[in-house]
Specification:
Largest sheet: 2 strands, parallel
Strand order of the largest sheet: 1-4
Distance between the termini: 41 Å
Helix content: 55-70%
Radius of gyration: 19 Å
Length: about 240
């Protein structure tokens, strides 16, 4: 049955783009980093589809699989992107989360996401395997693509952390000072707001747009995490 589903995808004429993060490599280079890989993938997918929309003079609208753990922060992150004129011309302000049980589009996306994951794991995982025939057929369409980041991406990021902090004006200490100045507690929500607003008068914009309960997610990090601020920032660039 799985083979039949892949055949339908390959012959459908649909295009797809998958993004993979090697979490083992991330933990090796940034052992204390928080679990924000979802937002890296989220951003890379939006950026790739925006570029596709630019090349075709169209606007793209996104629908994601329900993921309660990340839905709130992903929505806030998306709203920040839409406020940027370079993004808003090509991505719809509407963001939808759907159940795979109710949406055939999500089920097709899940199928390709599985191919993306298996293609990476078979090549770089603890037990390398031959390339799956299903991925070979998908890749040969020229419409289904995968990009990935691994140890070769994380290592130079770590090595250049001091320079990145200077160039971006972002650091763990500045984030803590930012929280203190506007009397907020740390959370992933606040970290995303910080990354989105730094460099564009963050205090004025954040206070203007702040709503009760918007940033009150429970803390998920502690002060001893190394490298996570710049990692998040460079996910956005």
């Amino acid at each position: 049955m799985y083979r039949d589903l892949v055949t339908l995808l390959v012959e459908s004429g649909l295009g797809g783009w998958g993004f993979v993060i090697d979490l083992a490599a991330q933990r090796t280079v940034f052992p204390n980093a928080p679990d924000i890989a979802y937002y890296k993938c989220f951003l890379e997918l939006i950026r790739a589809m925006r570029n596709c929309a630019v090349n075709n003079s169209e606007m793209v609208q996104f629908a994601f699989d329900n993921r309660r753990k990340n839905e709130h922060n992903a929505t806030r992150f998306y709203e920040t992107l839409v406020q940027d004129s370079e993004w808003s011309q090509y991505i719809s302000p509407k963001l939808t989360f759907l159940s795979s049980a109710e949406s055939s589009r999500i089920r097709v996306a899940d199928l390709f996401a599985r191919e993306t994951m298996k293609a990476w794991d078979n090549r770089f995982g603890p037990l390398p395997r031959k390339v799956r025939q299903s991925w070979t057929a998908s890749r040969n369409t020229g419409r289904l693509h995968i990009e990935a980041v691994g140890i070769d991406w994380f290592t130079p990021l770590k090595e250049n952390m001091t320079r990145f902090e200077k160039e971006t004006g972002m650091s763990q200490s500045s984030y803590q000072g930012w929280l203190s100045d506007i009397r907020l507690q740390h959370s992933v929500s606040n970290l995303l707001f910080y990354a989105g607003f730094v460099g564009v008068n963050p205090f004025r914009r954040l206070k203007k747009g702040l709503k009760k309960g918007m940033l009150d997610q429970p803390a998920m990090l502690t002060r001893d995490h190394d490298g996570w601020l710049i990692y998040l920032r460079y996910c956005r660039e």
